[in-house]
Amino acid sequence: MTDNIAFQDVRSLKSMLQGGQITPSELVDTFAERIERHNGLSKAFITTTIDAAREEAATVSRGDLDRSPFAGIPYASKDLFDVQGVLTTAGSKVFHDRVAKTDAYAVAKLRSAQAISLGKTNLHEFAYGATGENEVYGTAVNAYDATRLAGGSSSGSAAAVAFGLVPAALGTDTGGSVRAPAALNGLVGLKPTIGRVPTSGVVPYCWTLDHVGLMTRTIADCADLLGIVAGYDASDSTSVNRPVDNYTEALSQEIAGVRVGIPRNFYYDRADDEILTALERVKQYLVSCGAKLVPVTFPDMEHSRTVSLTVQMPEALSAHSAYLQERGELYGADFRAGLALGQCILAEHYVKAKRFVEVYRQQTNKLFDDVDLILTPATPEIAQKVGTVKVRRNGIDEAVGNAITRYTTFFNMTGHPALTMPCGMHTEGLPIALQLVGRYFDEKTVLRTAHAIERSERFSIPRPKVDR
């Protein structure tokens, strides 16, 4: 019974709570038991807050459950998010004593909604890296095959949801760090429009590209969660002051007439054949629903990853300059090497890269004159084995982290809302996922189109067999 509860989506759990089949306290106990049982393998959590969660659950009354979609629902947050009174490690020894004095914006919104935090999840140190490998806290693994990577940098958030340790989690996405691990673990991963969810109280990696992201089991849960954490915070320079849409209401709308852009270049290149075949099935289904497929051409993408890194590393170096002087020996070799790279990037290079980012935004935004959405594969590869260094495809070797995020990184530079979701299973027993990208602040169209795809059984996938 407890294992079955653990893999329910948030709306199903809420129905059980409101029907009196289970209490918030019993729900917390169910997930606490699973964390104890599975965290040794999954490496999902760095810090758990079970005692505090039990105290909070005991205060949630039957009447409180109607206050919000997440009242009485447990969740977890990537260990970059401050939770008052709890250690924020950022996956590093450097922050071994950093106890948060206040909640991050998104955490505070969830607390107000009476959602219950179960703890802080694992990540690639300081969010630097797409594999999720962490030499201090261990490497989070894939729920469908524990010999495979969960992906990163929000590796622990993906593992926590996929292993049935929580029904939803917060992450951050600077180059695909929510969308890619969600895709590799058969989950929904959303990077909203830049500025839609404030980053206040989140340890920064790259101010220009950082986004707060969401991981859930279903599109409806994602819409409900976005409705809670979206908003405006004047203390966050990237936050945008505009009304929050009713994302849940949008899910009931049909998608007939929606114009879906299909990239002619880059986004279907050098990908696993089974992933491409799965995307063809998605295209056919969208047409059957009345959507229109429209070819689109992206700007020259040859140097886009270089542009991203040229922005990332100087900003990361700036964020860590004080800590490097005081605690430089505590940094892992991986991130230290990245910071050293940041020292080699000239101001001239950084300024040019920022200008490229602005051009990318303008050129990509222009595509939405002719389409409402853009459809791509989420990743060109399925989850790779832990320890994999390079992936070879069509005679070309690519660093595994680059492969994992090849189709996601660009939209951190443009800032458009982007969602990944499962659309099939590979013959190797691992999830395949698609990516939908929308206009600025048009998460509603992204979510309702994703919901239409999710409703079709042809794209459903089995849950991982983690309790064998």
CATH topology: Amidase signature (AS) enzymes
Strand neighbour order, sheet with most strands: 1-3-2-6-8-7-14-15-11-9-10
CATH superfamily: Amidase signature (AS) domain
Number of helices: 16
Structural class: alpha/beta
Low-confidence stretches: none
CATH class: Alpha Beta
Name the helicity range.
25-40%
Protein name: Indoleacetamide hydrolase
Domain Amidase: 26-447
Pfam family, one: Amidase
Keywords: Plasmid, Transferase
Describe the model.
- Helix 3 (about 25-40) packs antiparallel against helix 4 (about 50-60), helix 11 (about 305-325) packs across helix 12 and helix 11 crosses helix 13.
- The two termini are about 15 Å apart.
- The protein is an alpha/beta fold.
- An eleven-stranded mixed beta sheet has the order 1-3-2-6-8-7-14-15-11-9-10, sandwiched between helices. The chain has a two-stranded antiparallel sheet with strand order 4-5.
- It has helices at about 1-5, 10-20, 25-40, 50-60, 105-110, 155-160, 180-185, 220-230, 245-250, 275-290, 305-325, 335-345, 345-365, 400-405, 410-415, 445-455, and strands spanning about 45-50, 75-80, 115-120, 140, 145-150, 170-175, 190, 210-215, 260-265, 290-295, 375, 390-395, 395-400, 420-425, 430-440.
- The longest helix is centred in the C-terminal third of the chain and has 24 residues, at about 305-325.
- The chain has one domain: Alpha-Beta Complex (Amidase signature (AS) enzymes).
- It is about 35% helix and about 15% strand.
- The mean pLDDT is about 95.
